[in-house]
Amino acid sequence: MKILVCASKTPETTSKIAFNGDGTAFETAGVQYIMNPYDEWYALVRAIELKEKQGGSVTIVNVGPAANDTVIRKGLAIGADNAVRINSEATSALFVAKQIAEYAKAENFDLVFLGKESIDYNGSEVGAMVAELLDMPFISYVNNLEVEGGKGTVSREIEGGTEILEVDLPMVLSAAKGLAEQRIPNMRGIMMAKRKPLKVVEPVAFDDPVAVVQYTLPDAKQAVKMLDPENMDELVRLLHEEAKVL
Amino acid sequence: MVLVFAESQNGNFKKGAFEAVTYAAKAAKLMGTECAVLTLGEAKDAGQLGKYGASKVINVTGEGLKQLDSQVSTAAIAGVANQIGADLIILSHSSTGKTIHGRLAAKLGAGSVTGVNALPDVSNGFRVKKNVFSGKAIAEFEIKTAQKVLTLMGNSLQPEELGAAVEVESMSVELPAPRVTIKEVSRIEGTVPLPEAELVVSAGRGLKGPENWGIVEELATTIGATTACSRPVADADWRPHHEHVGQTGVAIRPNLYIAIGISGAIQHLAGVNRSKVIVVVNKDPEAPFFKAADYGICADLFDVIPRLTEAVKKFKNQN
Ligand SMILES: Cc1cc2nc3c(=O)[nH]c(=O)nc-3n(C[C@H](O)[C@H](O)[C@H](O)COP(=O)(O)OP(=O)(O)OC[C@H]3O[C@@H](n4cnc5c(N)ncnc54)[C@H](O)[C@@H]3O)c2cc1C
Ligand SMILES: Nc1ncnc2c1ncn2[C@@H]1O[C@H](COP(=O)(O)O)[C@@H](O)[C@H]1O
User: Fold this and answer.
1) Which is more confident, A76 or B249?
2) Shortest CB distance from B182 goes to which of A128, A165, A217?
3) CB-ligand 1 contact for A182 (6 Å cutoff)
């Protein structure tokens, strides 16, 4: 089975979020980057598990600048076979999807994995876009996947429940918690990753349909009102009269 | 024209659908145009959606629309959008809406933004805002294409009656054959699903063990709230995984979030800090959650929660 895993790079979860003076760009100084957790913990690991069981290969694709190579190498250390970096800033979801689809078109992947969303912009956009551009079925928020005889049996998260579906390969899917267990790369994996192929390709021309024009920080929260633990009637009164939520 | 897809489940509309129609009607007014609603498959009383400000309600039926096959739904929405000349398409930011919208944007070559929480600014191009970096910042996006697709974050505005019921029009659209077969759907019965809940009672490791959840459930039932939990609690199987909120769990935006015995780690806050009102119960005065709270109670939860439940019962009896 030939598997593609789309992996993005995001600021580490505890990073301080700041912007330049006029709020037009994200301040990257001092920010630690990681592979988007959904991509690393669930999409990539499930892809590797399927390869280990059924044979084939796992390729990582990232749309990003050379600085992303560290994050990509970590994916190779976890167990992907090779990687492709499409050499461009990831400026919008449709731009990224277009680049991934252009690359994947000629490669005939059986499965294309993405994460359910990137934890920085929480877009949850790229997966469905790649599926449309490749004319493949798309299953979102997958928390279980078995593949047999060219067919996938998938369970996906929906509001307040789960859905079990059957889909013929090839397909695109986005990974949610439960799909696999996080793997920590070992020394051997890290050594081997250095020799695995990481190909760099140039992007195709595509006009961005969307751009961020302004970042702002949310209004500072009003100080918490500490209440007397002995007087729960007062809390209920405040929730009713002041906050108007009860 | 603004087109809004109103999601239904077993033929019934959800609250998110009324919010989306209200949003679309208000956006249409700003843009000096009208709003049409689209329903897919069977839907009861679809004409009532006119009350939320739509001048037209369109229904498309067909094989493959009874369930979510994103290719079929996308073809239906794109087909209608082109027939009525829609330049803005609104979906709910739900598991269904998020699964369709990217396809739709790619198919139409439309610029898209997901999870918007306020009306667009149309005074200078087309600009919309959303929360980014787990609520730690707000980004304003400019969409430059003629056609645009947005998903609306739940609980961003209240449904408002802005018009009257209308006749439902059926429209026919050529649809592809479905490629996805649904084998089974299981839903947790009885409670409002977390992403739609307006009131949420959530608990963490401070509860000490699953056997102590009775007081949490009793408070939730008394208020009429849905229960949630922190990640370690779900990881330890004290609570089911669908209750896990935060960066790696469900992100929610209820009117009221009561956090009991949860420290307030940044990854937990990422999923809940957009709640309108946050109440924190924690015995540690230094717990980081107090900084994100509106009301705080620094005390032993095993003592305070049963008394809070009593106080709510008393209030409910009086009102
Ligand atoms: C990449 C990443 C992603 C993560 N994603 C998530 C996520 O999505 N959601 C999430 O929740 N966590 C997530 N975490 C974990 C997070 O960092 C915290 O570890 C977790 O939220 C802590 O859970 P807790 O507050 O229940 O437990 P603790 O941190 O142990 O807090 C328990 C609290 O209960 C209080 N307490 C104890 N006894 C009592 C009592 N008798 N009365 C009153 N108060 C009491 C204590 O003072 C303490 O503040 C993530 C971590 C990482 C690294
Ligand atoms: N620059 C990128 N390169 C490769 N894959 C990406 C990139 N950005 C997003 N993705 C994939 O798309 C998923 C959803 O991202 P998003 O639509 O940005 O929330 C991520 O979990 C990744 O799998």
Assistant:
1) A76
2) A165
3) no
Q: How far apart are CA A133 and CA B103, in angstroms?
A: 8
User: Is the pLDDT score of B284 beyond 90?
Assistant: yes
Q: How far apart are CA B90 and CA B305, in angstroms?
A: 41
Protein residue with least CA distance to atom 9, ligand 2: A8
Which is nearest to A158 in space by CA: B203, B29, B185?
A: B185
CA B259 to chain centre: 20
Q: B20 and B5 in contact (C-beta within 8 Å)?
A: yes
State the closest ligand 2 atom to the C-alpha of A117, by its place in the atom list counted from 1: 19
Alpha carbon distance A39, A50 (integer Å): 15
Pocket perturbation via mutation, ligand 1, pick of B215, B245, B260, B282 by most ligand atoms within 8 A of CB: B282
- In angstroms, the first-to-last Cα distance of chain A is 54
Question: So what's the pLDDT on residue A69?
Answer: 97
CA nearest to B307 within chain A: A232
Query: What is the largest distance, in Å, between two alpha-carbon atoms of chain B?
Result: 62
| A124 closest CB neighbour out of B114, B198, B315 | B114
Q: Do B291 and A246 touch (CB under 8 A)?
A: no
What gap in Å lies between CA A99 and CA A103, rounded to an integer? 6
The pLDDT, as a whole number, for residue B109 is 97
pLDDT at B193: 85
**Of A163, A66, A48, A31, whose CA–CA distance to B188 is shortest?**
A163
Ligand 2 pocket mutation pick from A3, A4, A8 by most atoms within 8 angstroms of CB:
A8
Q: Lowest mean pLDDT: which of B29-38, B96-105, B130-139?
A: B130-139
The answer to whether B185 contacts A216, with C-beta atoms less than 8 Å apart, is no
The packing angle between helices A93-105 and B95-108, to 10°, is 70
Q: CA dist B307 to A170, B4, B97, B301, Å?
A: 56, 45, 41, 10
| Ligand 1 centroid, distance to B127 Cα (angstroms) | 37
- Report residue B305's pLDDT band, with 50, 70 and 90 as the boundaries: very high
Query: Any idea of the CA torsion for B86, B92, B98, B99, to the nearest 10 degrees?
Result: -70
- Using H for helix, E for strand and C for coil, what is the string for chain B? CEEEECCEECCEECHHHHHHHHHHHHHHHHCCCCEEEEEECCCCCHHHHHHHCCCEEEEECCCCCCCCCHHHHHHHHHHHHHHHCCCEEEEECCHHHHHHHHHHHHHHCCEEEEEECCCCECCCCCEEEEEECCCCEEEEEEECCCCEEEEECCCCCCCCCCCCCCCEEECCCCCCCCCEEEEEEEECCCCCCHHHCCEEEEECHHHCCHHHCHHHHHHHHHHCCEEEECHHHHHCCCCCHHHEECCCCECCCCCEEEEECCCCCHHHHHHHCCCCEEEEEECCCCCHHHHHCCEEEECCHHHHHHHHHHHHHHHHHHC
